[in-house]
Specification:
It is a single chain. With 384 residues, this protein is of the alpha+beta class. The protein folds into two domains: 112 residues, 3-layer Sandwich (Rieske Iron-sulfur Protein); 211 residues, Naphthalene 1,2-dioxygenase Alpha Subunit, Chain A, domain 1 (Alpha-Beta Complex), CATH 3.90.380. Helix content is 25%, strand content 25%. The strands form four sheets. Strands 11, 12, 13, 14, 15, 16, 17 and 18 form an eight-stranded antiparallel β-sheet that branches. Strands 4-3-2-5 form a four-stranded antiparallel β-sheet, with no helix packed on it. A hairpin with a 5-residue loop joins strand 7 and strand 8. The longest helix has 17 residues. The mean pLDDT is 95.
Length: 384
């Protein structure tokens, strides 16, 4: 395990006027990446997928997240459950591919079967040929190991170590900030509203780039032409999230005036406003009066990240064939913007190989959202 420079970590925790950014090891060292799985991901609520991937009872979606084999299942009661995707008998992977199960989750090795709520249902021949019971095999104690989960705006959050405060407590500020959206139904836009980008950078660079608007004039000139740098404001919540908002959201996807319908009962703020936050550790949200998107960051290594983007709308009517062209235009617009960021985050990743780089300097005016994220990371590694 790499010994991190505690003085450099302490420098990150200084006030922004005097602080440096995170040391290079946080972006380049595989040992630090492994430590982050425990310190930054397992000990809090991390995004691992989307409920839309299991829409019906019995739908099962195996996911490898941070090296952990997990299984997302839509249970009989309609709730989404997350389990370790391993049989309690000999640790065999239960489900290899996304599927719809008939009535049970069956282990392909020795055919132990589990209900959709994770309880162990059958153990064939466990006591010998034709004997499906044994006094040492207590079914009530051998259900699938469930991972704590919570769904917020269709995004599945999990707490791997089981010790974090309840999600409602952990995310209380976000739930309050977006209370006008949090309980409203969302409708996924379909295949054209789902795409992924593979980026050769550390996941944290995607977070810190997303949460600030400072780069707009140079990296997103098209976006900046109508949503200018001066139209943006900082959004910050200690230990939870940071980001930016705009006061001039006014999309024009069609020259005839066609547009997506808005969410019901929104306050006047959202007539021309939109907000974009990095919710720590690994999900990027964008909320607008007429659609919502989430970007899950899936760290593959210290220098490679997969960004999974899902876009949602306000009603089933917005997901029909007659709106397909607008959905494609909207998805294309966002994809173009996200692609514009790739050379930046990949360039910063290459820059972290400069041995004398000290983590960089923050603008006290333009960089508070980014510094807040660096501070969150450093505080967790410092045990604060």
């Amino acid at each position: 395990m790499t010994v991190l420079d505690q003085d450099m970590i302490a420098n990150v925790l200084r006030p922004i006027e005097a602080a440096n950014g995170l040391p290079n090891a946080f972006y380049t060292d595989p040992d630090v990446h492994e430590a982050e799985k425990r310190v930054l991901f397992a000990a809090t609520w991390a995004c691992m997928g989307f409920a839309k991937d299991v829409p019906n009872k019995g739908d099962a979606n195996p996911v490898t997240f941070l090296g952990q084999p997990l299984l997302v299942v839509r249970a009989d009661d309609g709730e989404v459950r997350v389990f370790q995707n391993v049989c309690r008998h000999r640790g065999m992977i239960l489900v290899e591919e996304k599927t719809t199960l008939r009535s049970t989750i069956r282990c392909p090795y020795h055919s132990w079967c589990y209900n959709f709520d994770g309880s162990l249902r059958t153990t064939p021949h466990v006591g010998g040929p034709g004997k499906n019971l044994h006094e040492c095999i207590k079914r009530e104690e051998l259900g699938l190991i469930e991972v704590r989960s919570y769904i917020f705006m269709d995004t599945i959050f999990i707490n791997l170590d089981g010790k974090a405060p309840a999600f409602e407590v952990h995310a209380a500020s976000l739930l309050e900030q977006w209370k006008e959206f949090a309980d409203k139904p969302l409708y996924h836009g379909g295949p054209d509203s789902s795409f992924s980008l593979e980026v050769n950078c550390n996941w944290k660079l995607a977070v810190e780039n997303y949460c600030e608007s400072y780069h707009l004039p140079w990296i997103h000139p098209g976006l900046n032409s109508y949503s200018r740098l001066e139209d943006h404001y900082h959004i910050m919540q200690q230990g939870e999230y940071s980001g930016q908002g705009t006061v001039v959201y006014n999309p024009k996807l069609d020259d005839t005036g066609r547009a997506f319908s808005n969410f019901d009962d929104l306050s006047a703020k959202w007539d021309t406003g939109a907000e974009y936050i990095s919710f720590y550790p690994n999900v990027l949200f964008g909320v607008h009066r007429d659609h919502f998107y989430a970007i899950m960051l899936d760290p593959q290594s210290n220098g490679r990240t997969i960004e999974r983007i899902e876009i949602y709308y306000t009603s089933p009517d917005m997901c029909g064939d007659d709106m397909a062209d607008l959905r494609r235009k909207n998805a294309s617009m966002w994809k173009d913007i996200f692609v514009e960021d790739i050379f930046v985050v990949e360039g910063m990743q290459r820059g972290r190989s400069a041995s004398l780089y000290d983590g960089g300097k923050f603008s006290p005016v333009m960089d508070p959202p980014t510094h807040l994220f660096h501070e969150w990371v450093a505080a967790r590694f410092a045990g604060k």
